[in-house]
Amino acid sequence: MNLTQEDWIAQLEEDENAVILDVRTEDECDEGIIPNAINIDIHKGQGFISEIEKLDKSKNYYVYCRSGARSAKACEIMNELGFENAYNLLGGMLDWDGEVVAP
């Protein structure tokens, strides 16, 4: 499910079962991440799928990348793997005006 930044933040703040997932490359993450995000690079192919499969499917995942394209794909993959709640941040980090921290 695609969410605007406002909806993504509002839903995240109300969600006690939330996990923030950054699917960018390590180099991109070095430029800053959303606080408390975990990084699993979608470009790792099968390695990405292997890492995703280790995650708790009962949690709600708030997924982002640089522009929103890779995170949308990540949400699709997660849905196929049985994750019911994966939310894509539309516009990604390019449009993000919230807090950013060093990884």
Automatic annotation (TrEMBL):
Which Pfam families does the UniProt record give?
Rhodanese
State the InterPro entries in the record: GlpE_sulfurtransferase, Rhodanese-like_dom, Rhodanese-like_dom_sf
Q: Which residues form the Rhodanese domain?
A: 14-102
**Superkingdom of source:** Bacteria
Q: What is this protein called?
A: Rhodanese
Q: Which organism is it from?
A: Flavobacterium palustre
